[in-house]
Design a protein that fits this description.
366 residues; 16% strand; alpha/beta; globular
């Protein structure tokens, strides 16, 4: 029986991970749960799965589990637990330290946190190589690329093509400066957390995914196309002009399950087969209205801390937007401002990134 640690267990990906694990009670045992402030849900999860370790930002009542509390609780849990599979579903840069610690333990990392790879890709990937940890992406787009590349010769790949739904405003001619937080979080095809829903609406998320894909798959040849139905999750174009694509109805549990069961495919997915009588649509990006992916490409080309600033400034901007302190269209403006005021440097350590993150937050008053 494989031992599984779930970081971010009370968030969207964490909750769906536990849904998947319930299907395989004889194959997986939850040995650790890490959460933030939602201790009521964490306590219910702990009562059901009986983990050895839990962590949370505030104290919780989790029976006989060893509990770690505070801002470093997830890191202390990562150091204590010995898991065969670690699902890293914490959001933001706060996942970096526990992720690096989990990598040092070896085993499999089912990675659902894109910020760590965007901000510290070289640190994360070099650590995985050093300690023999296996990283399998959980993001639907990167999971799709991972699956399309299985058994392929990397030299035969011409480019990776991510798909983007376009969010709720791509096909609208409305004034984006008037978009409210309530409308921005209503994703047309996916059921996701608040921040990632806003990032999808601004297309910042696609910029993060372009950087992440480039780093995970070691190529600068990463493109994207608008695909409103979100049925094809990504494509890989080969040098012979053939293209492989992964298709399914939008459901994150399928990608989560694949990361857990790889290299086999489990039958019990809860996802119905695709109806091939349904039409599929592809549209060109509109980077005049949604400039974030173009900014991300520039950051990727510049390297160093530029991708980290892109991610960190977005986190600040989304917080301000959700608090109704800035307009929807100000989000990319804040990213551009942060890139202008921060000198680009080589990424040397996690501590350097934490200091950079604090500096950006101070500048924007967050």
């Amino acid at each position: 029986m494989k031992r599984v640690a779930v970081f971010g267990s009370t968030g969207s990906i964490g909750v769906q991970t536990l849904n998947v694990l319930r299907r395989f009670p004889d194959e997986y045992r939850v040995t650790a749960l890490a959460a933030g402030h939602n201790v009521r849900l964490l306590e219910r999860q702990a009562a059901e799965f009986c983990p050895e370790f839990v962590s949370s930002l505030v104290p919780c009542e989790c029976g006989g589990a060893t509990a770690f509390t505070g801002t470093d609780g997830a890191l202390r849990l990562a150091r204590a637990v010995g898991a065969d599979i670690t699902v890293m579903a914490m959001t933001g840069l706060s996942a970096l330290a526990p992720l690096l610690s989990s990598i040092e333990n070896g085993g499999r990392i089912a990675l659902a946190n894109k910020e760590a790879v965007v901000c510290a890709g070289e640190l994360v990937l070099s650590a995985a190589k050093r300690y023999g940890a296996e990283i399998i992406p959980v993001d639907s787009e990167h999971s799709a690329v991972f699956q399309c590349l299985k058994g392929e010769n990397g030299g035969d790949v011409r480019r990776i093509i991510l798909t983007a739904s376009g969010g709720p405003f791509y096909s609208s001619d409305e004034d984006l400066s008037l978009v409210t937080p309530e409308r921005a979080v209503r994703h047309p095809t996916w059921n996701m957390g608040t921040k990632i829903s806003v990032d999808s609406a601004t297309m910042v998320n696609k910029g993060l995914e372009l950087i992440e894909a480039s780093r995970l798959f070691c190529t600068d040849a990463v493109d994207y196309v608008i695909h409103p139905e979100s049925i094809i999750h990504s494509m890989v174009e080969f040098t012979d002009n053939s293209t492989a694509a992964l298709m399914s109805y939008p459901n994150m549990e399928l990608a989560i399950q694949y990361a857990l069961t790889y290299p086999r495919r489990a039958v019990n997915t809860g996802v119905r087969p695709f109806d091939f009588t349904r039409p599929l649509t592809f549209l060109p990006p509109d980077e005049k209205r949604f400039p974030a992916p173009a900014i991300a490409r520039r950051c990727l080309k510049e390297g160093g801390t530029a991708p980290a600033v892109y991610s960190m400034a977005d986190e600040v901007a989304v917080k301000l937007f959700l608090e109704k302190l800035i307009k929807f269209t100000d989000i990319t403006g804040i990213i551009e401002e942060a890139l202008c005021i921060n000198e680009n440097e080589r990424v040397e350590s996690a501590e350097q990134l934490y200091e950079l993150n604090d500096s950006i937050k101070r500048h924007f008053g967050v």
